[in-house]
Design brief:
Number of helices: 2
Helix content: over 70%
Structural class: mainly alpha
Order of helices and strands: HH
Number of strands: 0
């Protein structure tokens, strides 16, 4: 598993994939709320957006720990 999560992959997840997906789900949640689907829109805003935020934070921390391990040797 650690071979699949190298610095390049974690950089993509932390700085591109999770922020873009979080933004898209936040916009979709707002559009759903404005169109009248309040409950699914709030679920999009509260749950799905926070999943992508947590994923980005996790990938950033994992990436920084990998860079510290490789620079310390």
């Amino acid at each position: 598993m650690s071979l699949m999560l190298n610095k390049t992959t974690l950089t993509f997840i932390a700085f591109i994939a999770c922020p873009v997906l979080g933004l898209v789900t936040a916009v979709m949640g707002l559009v759903m709320i404005l169109s009248g689907d309040v409950i699914p829109g709030v679920i999009f805003l509260v749950v799905l957006t926070q999943v992508f935020v947590a994923g980005g934070i996790w990938a950033t921390r994992k990436r920084s720990s990998l860079t510290q391990d490789s620079s310390g040797q």
